């Protein structure tokens, strides 16, 4: 056998042996588990492209997910957890950032653009 054939066979046989992170977390009750999962679903992974903490297997997402689970076990509310994550990782981790001076353009630009497009369409139709 040639080296290329051996390499191809090795790659073919090694492909199903990929390692994957298995996340096991023991919750104290089903209510706490549901609360933790709902909060983790509302936080974006800072490393991935538009995945929440439950969908991502990135190392930073696993760390953040464990922090959320631990804070939930401590009895923290959703707003306390979101505030902590925002303070630590920035507004990017929130799917719906709060209305603040720093996020005003994020919330104000879509309605402004819609109004501008409507005005342009209205003006172009009213001209003879």
From TrEMBL:
What the entry lists under Gene3D superfamilies is as follows: Cytochrome C biogenesis protein
Q: Which Pfam families match?
A: CcmH (PF03918)
Domain CcmH/CycL/Ccl2/NrfF N-terminal: where? Answer: 10-124
Question: Which keywords does this chain's UniProt record carry?
Answer: Heme, Iron, Membrane, Metal-binding, Signal, Transmembrane, Transmembrane helix
| Parts of the chain that traverse the membrane | 99-122
List the InterPro entries hit by this protein, alphabetically.
C-type_cytochrome_biogenesis, CcmH/CycL/Ccl2/NrfF_N, CcmH/CycL/NrfF/Ccl2_sf
Family the entry assigns: Belongs to the CcmH/CycL/Ccl2/NrfF family.
> What is this protein's function per UniProt?
Possible subunit of a heme lyase.
Q: What is this protein called?
A: Cytochrome c-type biogenesis protein
Q: What is the lineage of its organism?
A: Bacteria, Pseudomonadati, Pseudomonadota, Gammaproteobacteria, Enterobacterales
């Amino acid at each position: 056998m040639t080296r290329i054939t051996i390499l191809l066979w090795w790659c073919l046989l090694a492909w199903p042996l990929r390692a994957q992170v298995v996340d096991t977390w023991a919750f104290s009750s089903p209510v706490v588990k549901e609360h933790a999962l709902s909060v983790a679903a509302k936080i974006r992974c800072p490393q991935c492209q538009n995945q929440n903490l439950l969908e991502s297997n990135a190392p930073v997402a696993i760390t953040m997910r464990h922090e959320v689970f631990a804070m939930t076990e401590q009895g923290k509310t959703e707003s306390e957890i979101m505030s902590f994550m925002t303070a630590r990782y920035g507004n990017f981790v929130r799917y719906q950032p709060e209305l603040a001076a720093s996020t005003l353009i994020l919330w104000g630009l879509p309605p402004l653009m819609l109004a501008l497009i409507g005005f342009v369409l209205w003006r172009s139709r009213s001209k003879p």
